[in-house]
Amino acid sequence: MKYLIKTYGCQMNVHESEKLAGILENMGYKVCEDEKDADLILFNTCAIRESAEQKIFAHIGELKKLKAQKKDMIIAICGCMSQQTGYPENILKKFPFVDIIFGTHNISELEDFILKRKSLKKKVVDIKENEDISNRDLMPKKRTSGINAWVNIMYGCNNFCTYCIVPYVRGREVSRPINDIKKEVENVVKEGYKQVTLLGQNVNSYGNDVGDENVNFANLLKTLDEIEGDFRLTFMTSHPKDISKEVIDIIAGSKHILHYLHLPVQSGSDKVLKAMNRRYTAENYFEKIEYAKSKIPDIEFSSDIIVGFPGETEEDFNDTMELVKKVQYEQLFMFIYSKRKGTVAEKMGNQVDLATKKDRLKRLIALQNEIGSKVAEKYIGKTVDVLVSDVHPKKQGYLIGTTFTNKNVNFAGDRSLIGKTVKVKIQSSKLTVLYGIMEEN
Ligand code: 5AD
Ligand code: SF4
Question: Does the reported pTM lie above 0.90?
Fold first, then answer.
């Protein structure tokens, strides 16, 4: 029995697919690469933008022929797209050959769904509103991200940014108990993982649902940083309104936490930020960046930006360009605003036309290419500690790795170095990537 999981979207989904793979392997399934060999194909879907949905629909549609030839093959759909109101019905109407649909709150029941499908010969559609999250992390995990181990610290989001579908499909914030997280991190470090990435939609509000002031993100970081062993620690995603000075101080004084912060700003215009319900101003945001730079001089930042949010004028867009210039991000993830059903922004009257959105995106990308290149050039001539993550996917004899500031580095070396930290002298750079030569270690 063979399975294949197709994962779309964010790191949260990547990690949830590792949990789903764990369940399947426990049931005796073995992973395969080719759809034709699979007895079960599972789509772990994303709903963040319309483009993600279109891509997923196209991929599901491509399976129609294969399923007609292989009637016993199970096709299952889960994740954020399944969880949206009306979607399970639409998926089945469009793709009647789909066997199982479940949502984001019941992934731990995958085995039951498969057994039901097999014994009752009936389609299984099961979307829940919430689950006991302790189940989810009791599941076996098949980690597939090389030397990095993802660790969930919380689920859901309470923020309701007006463009975003996440709070509707992932529910309210629920934090995992600190001791469970600590145990998981200790275990993965013992197992030899060299980087631990903590996951949550808004990690800075960790513990807010617990009602004990000692349970917060700063204390969690402090506790995890005290764990003995050779590992790097990082986290995503932070919300600018919630990240505290204390968290930055802890990073500054820590042993394991990367000097890198992904801090999505979304826009540099106060008017747009307000309409987005982000609850900070460009100035508040920049103060936090400045504070972090003062405490951690070599820190690098990355961010997410949406262009063409309803009502965004040329002036608003210019405010975004100005903020980007001020911060000097190492990397930006830039998106064209996409209307999401059921969100507040969907009903805003002043939508921006597609040509303007595309033009703004192009200008922002051009600016960031310049800035990103400049940030990378700073490293030329320096010797940096690089954690080797893998062999280069294309260049034989080359390795890839990251600096303590999360910059990607390419250099020649042997695969036996994967998982080790080596010294690399940086010689050149191209956009965000650094190229160097390994020094005697
Ligand atoms: N349209 C475009 N981008 C979006 N994001 C979230 N919702 C939307 C949307 N409706 C972006 C935000 C977020 C990132 C994960 O995706 O920038 O930080
Ligand atoms: Fe979406 Fe905002 Fe929650 Fe992030 S914080 S998941 S952008 S609602």
Answer: yes
